[in-house]
Amino acid sequence: MALTYSTAIANARLDAVESTIGTSAILRIRTGAAPATVATASSGTVLATCTLPSDWMAAASSRSKAKSGTWEDTSADNAGTAGHFEIVASDGTTVGLRGDVTVTSGGGNLTVDNVVFAAGQAFSITSFTLTAAN
């Protein structure tokens, strides 16, 4: 039998993501595929860097946790096509999670209004949600 969790435990696990990474987390959008694990060194060119809001995720509810506040950058760092993202602690080095980037409705872990970045371009994160299945 597979291990299952109550909704309360699933929500607590999701909330632990934000509390473990901490406030003033940093989002980096990078080119290429994400490394295999968060312990693997970062790869790809950094296209954009955003300091996330202090409370960057809403409280988990019904096994889901969505971004909170505005996630945007008024000036992208470099030109290229977004492939993956990483969210790191305020120290700028401790990676908490990684995933893929797609356009809105593209099915990625994190969605943006346009995956092709130009240096200096403004962009916004349209969707980011964590879920916990049983």
Notes on the structure:
- The protein is mainly beta and 134 residues long.
- It contains one helix and nine strands, in the order αβββββββββ.
- It has one helix at residues 7-21; strands at residues 26-31, 46-51, 64-66, 72-73, 80-88, 95-103, 110-112, 116-117, 123-131.
- Strands 1, 2, 3, 4, 5, 6, 7, 8 and 9 form a nine-stranded mixed beta sheet that branches.
- The model has no long low-confidence stretch (mean pLDDT 92).
Distance between the termini: 12 Å
Largest sheet: 9 strands, mixed
Question: What is the helix fraction of residues, given as a range?
Answer: 10-25%
Q: Helices and strands, in N-to-C order?
A: HEEEEEEEEE
Residue stretches low in confidence (pLDDT < 50, at least 5 long) are none
Global Rg: 15 Å
* DSSP strand tally: 9
Give the secondary structure arrangement, pairings included.
Elements: H1 7-21, E1 26-31, E2 46-51, E3 64-66, E4 72-73, E5 80-88, E6 95-103, E7 110-112, E8 116-117, E9 123-131
Parallel strand pairs: 6-7
Antiparallel strand pairs: 1-2, 1-5, 3-9, 4-9, 5-6, 5-8, 7-9
Task: Kindly list the characteristics that best describe this protein.
37% strand, 134 residues, mainly beta
Compose a concise summary of this entry.
The protein has about 130 residues and is mostly beta strands. Helices cover about 10% and strands about 35% of the residues.
